[in-house]
Specification:
The protein is an alpha/beta fold and 420 residues long. It folds into three domains: 5-124, Tetrapyrrole methylase, N-terminal domain (Cobalt-precorrin-4 Transmethylase, domain 1); 128-226, 2-Layer Sandwich (Methyltransferase, Cobalt-precorrin-4 Transmethylase, Domain 2), CATH 3.30.950.10; 244-419, 3-Layer(aba) Sandwich (Rossmann fold), CATH 3.40.50. 26% of the residues lie in helices and 24% in strands. The protein contains eleven helices and 19 strands. It has helices at residues 20-28, 36-40, 77-87, 106-114, 127-135, 174-184, 256-266, 283-291, 304-316, 352-359, 373-386, and strands at residues 5-10, 31-34, 69-72, 93-98, 119-122, 143-146, 164-168, 191-196, 204-209, 221-226, 273-277, 296-301, 322-325, 340-343, 365-370, 389-393, 396-401, 404-409, 413-419. The strands form four sheets. A seven-stranded mixed sheet has the order 13-12-11-14-15-19-16, sandwiched between helices. Strands 3-2-4-1-5 form a five-stranded parallel sheet, with helices on both faces. The chain is globular and about 85 Å long. It starts with a strand and ends with a strand.
């Protein structure tokens, strides 16, 4: 059996901070892969080090520097990686990674690609553990958000009063972008720390408030935020039932109270996939995704303008929803089987409910909402055939009646739900 590919975590302190096992692995590798920055941290000849007993001698197990092939990653890495591994198959390969390779790192990617038995990982303290050590924060009580290759909006759901965030930056511009986002959300008073070159001789930590941040920083940085809301800021919780005002819509929006009940029936589970059929403003798909970062959702909507509005809502509220322009049931063909389906529009179209029910995985949840007599008739027929839970929800809101206050009823909504 060939030697497993080894992934070695390396910190900003480079070679001096590596363990004996990590140094031996690098020295004996025939092929060394990593970013240009990481490769520059390794001496041209690793066997020439201050501690000659820490490494195997050349000619025994070691590889002379002239024989070791060093390859810098090309971008995008996901496309070049399989080819690189195929080119050097059969040779002793060592991959350099930042910090802990299995924490938002390439170690996870390689394990998924090659299998756990084919990958050996030698971790180094992650930038998160170093940041928490510097800030005095319990590592198990922080929310980690990676912006490496991801949009800034992913931070949005985690901006909550009192929440501590450790944000992995994607360059020197990220701290200013995060600070600006916090200010725009009404969290300008949040404690804001930027930690540069953690673990190296050039390490620097600077702390201020988000609305006072105005510094140029090293590209290798991590951000620590302790969220503090300004007075009167509206809370955008991850609990289902965001205010209707959180969404841009043309009126095609599942209203707040109905949305909360609907989400309770859909019962989001981390990692599961939702179909939002008749997506409208996208409120159901978005609140499904806000439940947990690993949740996934596909919104199917026939109106291209609504799709654009839905996508803007998703960006604003910090989630990534896949959209499909088209009419169900035809637009559902070829989609990954869902764990839950919400039909908020189009239930009266022949084949929509049948297609959704057939596509559901075992244990999956189907929820259909209706406000018209025609949709209620379809729901009643299916309820008689399959059973489930049938609820009619009527909401009234207080509003002015002259100089007094009275109740104004919204249209009642029928909610049919069942588990496969």
């Amino acid at each position: 059996m060939p030697d497993p590919l080894t992934v070695v975590g390396i910190g900003a302190d480079g070679w001096p901070g590596l363990s004996l096992a990590a140094r031996q692995t690098i020295t004996t590798a025939e092929v060394l892969l990593g970013s240009t920055r990481q490769l520059a941290l390794i001496p041209a000849d690793p066997t020439e080090c201050p501690d000659p007993h820490s490494l195997p001698a050349k000619g025994v197990d070691g590889v002379a520097s002239g024989e070791q092939v060093r390859v810098a990653w090309s971008s995008p890495l996901s496309e070049s990686l399989p080819g690189l591994l195929a080119t050097h198959r059969g040779r002793r390969i060592c991959v350099l990674a930042s910090g802990d390779p299995t924490f938002h790192g390439i170690g996870t990617t390689l394990t998924r690609l090659l299998g756990a038995e084919a990958v050996r990982v030698i971790p180094h303290p992650s930038s998160v553990s170093l940041a928490c050590a510097r800030l005095g924060w319990p590592q198990d009580q922080v929310q980690v958000v990676s912006l490496v290759g991801h949009p800034l909006e992913l931070v949005q759901p985690h901006i909550q009063p009192g929440r501590r965030l450790v944000i992995l930056s994607w360059g020197a511009q990220t701290p200013a972008e995060v600070a600006e986002l916090l200010v725009s959300r009404g969290y300008g008073g949040s404690a804001f720390a930027v930690l540069e070159q953690l673990g190296s001789a050039a390490e620097r930590v600077r702390s201020t408030r988000a609305d006072k941040w105005d510094h140029e920083v090293d590209a290798l940085n991590v951000i620590g935020v302790e969220c503090r809301a300004d007075l009167g800021v509206e809370l955008l919780s991850t609990t289902p039932g965001l205010p209707d005002s959180a969404y841009e819509s043309d009126g095609q929006l599942t209203k707040r109270e109905v949305r909360a009940v609907t989400m309770s029936r859909l019962a989001p589970v981390p990692g599961q996939l939702l179909w939002d059929v008749g997506g409208g403003a996208g409120s159901i798909a978005i609140e499904w995704l806000r439940h947990h970062p690993s949740c996934r959702a596909v919104a199917i909507e026939q109106d291209p303008d609504r799709i654009k509005r839905l996508e803007r809502n998703a960006v604003t509220l910090g989630v990534a929803v896949r959209t499909v322009v088209g009419s169900a049931p035809a637009a559902l063909e070829g989609l990954e089987r869902p764990d839950a389906v919400f039909v908020g529009g189009g239930a009266t179209v022949p084949g929509v409910i049948e297609t959704c029910w057939d596509a559901l995985r075992p244990g999956g949840r189907l929820v259909v909402n209706g406000v018209t007599l025609e949709t209620e008739a379809v729901i009643a027929r299916w309820y008689a055939e399959l059973g489930g839970d049938l609820v009619r929800l009527a909401v009234q809101r207080a509003s002015a009646v002259g100089t007094m206050t009275g109740w104004r009823p919204a249209m009642p909504v029928t909610i049919w739900s069942l588990t496969k």
